[in-house]
Amino acid sequence: MKRGLLWAWLxxxxxxLLTGYLYLxxxxxxxxxxxxxxxxxxxxxxxNETVLRFQSFRGSVLPAMQEALxxxxxxxxxxxxxxxxxxxxxxxxxxxxxRDSFSKSAVPQEGQRxxxxxxLYYIPSAGNPFKLVHPIDAGLMQGxxxxxxxxxxxxxxxxxLKKSLSGVHRVAADDPHDSWxxxxxxxxxxxxxxxxxxxxxxxxxxxSVQAEQHRRAARxxxxxxxxxxxxxxxxxxxxxxxxxxxxKKFLLVQIDRVxxxxxxxxxxxxxxxxxxxxxxPTYLDNTLIQPGDVIVLEVAARMDEPxxxxxxxxxxxxxxxxxxxxxxxxxxxxxGTRDAVLQAIRAAVKEKRTMTGQEAQQAAGGFLARKGxxxxxxxxVGFSLGRTLFGPGANLDALLLPDxxxxxxxxxxxxxxxxxxxxxxxxxxxxxxxxxxxLAITTWPVQDQVVPILQ
Length: 455
Prior knowledge:
37% of the residues lie in helices and 17% in strands. The chain is α+β, with helices and mostly antiparallel strands and 455 residues long. The protein folds into two domains: 62-202, Creatine Amidinohydrolase, Chain A, domain 1; 208-452, Creatine Amidinohydrolase (Alpha-Beta Complex).
C-alpha cells in the first residue's frame, strides 16, 4: 500500500515537471530563453523606472518630512537596508503609508517574509518618492507611495540610483560613507550628509497613547523593585539565600504577571560585580546574594500593546538592617549626579532653550568634577527610550559617542548615572518624559538613599 502511494506521488511530481518543461519549450523555446526573457523584463523595468504602483499621500508623513528636508536645505533622504542592519528603517517606512488604502503588506510585518536583498526608499524634498527593490522582493513595498524600480545586480543598483538622483545636490543618509550609497554617487557632485537629526523627528516623538503606555510601564517597574528586595529579604531570613540567577527569573515572572514585555534581561549584580557597569550574569549564575552585599537591580520593559514604549528603572540596595556610611556616601554622589542632569534639563525647558544630549552629560561631568570624581561614571548618563530599549532619539552622551542632537519634546529617555570603584558600584536610573514645557519623571519614587533590605 505504502509503495503504491509512493509511486503515485512520484508519477504526479514527474508529470508536473514535464508539464512545466513543455510549457517553457512551447512558449520560449528553451529554459535558457525563458531565463533571458525574465532578465530582459527586469532590466527593462529598472532602466525605464516602470511605475508599478502610485498612491496618494493622504494621511502619510510625507508633507512633514519634506518640510523638514527643506528647512535643512536637503534635496532628499535616502532610506535603505540590507538584512535588517538598520532596524529603525522598518519603524519609519509604515509612516508613509496612506492608511485609507493600506493592506497590511506595506513593509514586512512580524511573522512575514523579510527582504532577502537590499532595498531603498528615497524621499525628495518635493515631488514623489521612489523605491528600488530586487524582483525577489517584489510586492513587499507595495503599500508605500511612489515609483518602483527593479535591479538585478549591483551594477543595476548603481545605475538606477545615479540616474534617479541626477540634478540633486545635497541628500541625507544614515551612513554617508556606506558603499551602497556613496559609490553610485561618487563623482556626481552630490553631497551626502548624516540623517541622524531627521529620524528622531518622526520616530522618537510619542503620541498621547504612547506617552500613557510609557507611564503605565514605568509605574509597574517602580513596583517591581521593592518586590525583588522583599524576595531577597525573605530568602535571607529563612537562611536560604537566593542566587543572582534565581532573582533574574523572579523579576521576569513579575514582568510577565503585570502584562509587560521586554527584550532586556533584568540586570542583577551583587558584591564586587557591582563595580562593573551594566554587569549582566546569566540565569545560571549561582552567586548567592548574602548579608553585607551591595546589590544593583535594573529592569526595563514596555506594555504588551502595539506601539508601546520602554521604561527603565534601577535601584541600589544593601543586604543588611542599616547601610554602611561608605555605601551611602557613594550613592549620594550618584543621586546628586542624576539630579544635576535633571535640573539642567528643567532649566533649559523653562528657558525654552534647546539642550543636546552631550550637554546633558556635561552637566553630570560638571557635578562630578566639583566632587573630584571626574572619572567615576565612565558611561553615558542616559539613553533614548522607544519601541526598542535603545530608542531613536538623542542619548545623554558626551563620552563615547558625543550626541549633538537636541532633546526633543514629546520624547522619553532615561537618566542613569553610576558611580564605580574597585570594591563596589552604585547606580540609579529613572525614566523621563520630556513634554512641551514640562519634564516628568515617570518612575516614582526617585531613590534618594540606599535601601536597607533587611530592615
